[in-house]
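Pilot study result, target chain (115 residues):
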Amino acid sequence: MSLIIGWAINAVSLLLLTWIMPAVNVASFGTALVVVLVLGLLNAVIRPVLLVLTLPVNVLTLGLFTFVINGFLFWLASRFLEGFEVRSFGWAVLGAIAYSLISWAVSALIPRWRA
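Predicted structure:
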């Protein structure tokens, strides 16, 4: 149950992002659900590989290159999915940062319960 709630929270966060940042567009709530699913899969499969491959750059930038990797995955998801559009790579990096902050804030506002 908590997985479904987390999925819905992230979809709502993505819709809030489109309201705050006009360079990111999502067609509907259903599209937002699919985008969140694809972002989760990209973060689970591709992100660890990219983090290992870019480890020297990440060490030199004191971890700031991770923002670029997150933006790349955000941009990549927009290239795969219809109804999800990011205007440019720079907006994708800013969108990924804002999306994670919004998702964190919304998750913090909702009380957690244990079964």
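One observation from the pilot: The helical segments are 2-20, 29-53, 55-60, 65-80, 89-109. A full batch analysis is planned for the follow-on phase.
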